[in-house]
UniProtKB/TrEMBL annotation:
One Pfam family from the record: EFP_N
Family listed: Belongs to the elongation factor P family.
Protein name per UniProt: Elongation factor P
GO cellular component: cytosol
Ranges where the Translation elongation factor P/YeiP central domain occurs: 67-121
This protein's pathway: Protein biosynthesis; polypeptide chain elongation
PROSITE patterns from the UniProt entry: EFP
Length: 185
């Protein structure tokens, strides 16, 4: 059990039989009435973000999340197959569990799997990945003051805004949290 007064960003808690991670919290002491904690929590099972208010000092369950390294092997239809790097056990995840991550996932890539009491909640991508540009229009110098961009499609099908000097075949460093171009790799 943990007190809501000890909330920290990234903490995993169990509320109403669901597993949440704390995205944001605020301790509020109104002039009249009891203090409370306003929080923004992300459900790790379905990805929904909810706002919950707790009384100051209220205790809730702490969820022990396990992370371990796995390797993405291949997909067949809507099933994506991964292999545990320690035990070499293979398991499948459904496409619905990986919607955002599929923008960055390549075969043989190592990622972390997040699980709670044996239930797989999802995968954690590295903060950035190297992806090759498969399609982009040629950059044209012209009426640009600064910071001109164009669309580029990378090998996973993701389209990102890139500077004009990027060409097909270039390998880019892409931020997996926001899906944005960082630099050339």
């Amino acid at each position: 059990m943990i007190s809501v007064n000890d909330f920290k960003t990234g903490l995993t808690v169990q509320v109403d039989n669901d597993i949440f991670t704390v995205l944001d919290f605020q301790h509020v002491k109104p002039g009249k009435g009891a203090a409370f904690v306003r929080s923004k929590l992300k459900n790790l099972r379905n990805g929904n973000v909810v706002e919950k208010t707790f009384r100051a000092g209220e205790t809730i369950g702490r969820a022990q999340i396990e992370n371990r390294a796995v390797q993405y092997l291949y997909n067949s239809g809507s099933e994506y197959t991964f292999m545990d790097n320690e035990t070499f056990d293979q398991f499948n995840l459904d496409k619905k569990q990986l919607e955002w991550e599929l923008n960055f996932l390549k075969e043989n890539m190592t990622v972390n799997i997040t699980s709670y009491q044996g239930e797989i909640l999802g995968i954690q991508m590295p903060n950035s990945v190297d992806l090759k540009v498969t399609e982009t229009e040629p950059g044209v110098k012209g009426n640009t003051a600064q910071g001109a961009t164009k669309n580029a499609t990378v090998e996973t099908g993701l389209t990102v805004q890139v500077p004009l000097f990027i060409n097909e075949g270039d390998v880019l460093l892409i931020d997996t949290r926001e899906g944005k171009y960082i630099s050339r790799a």
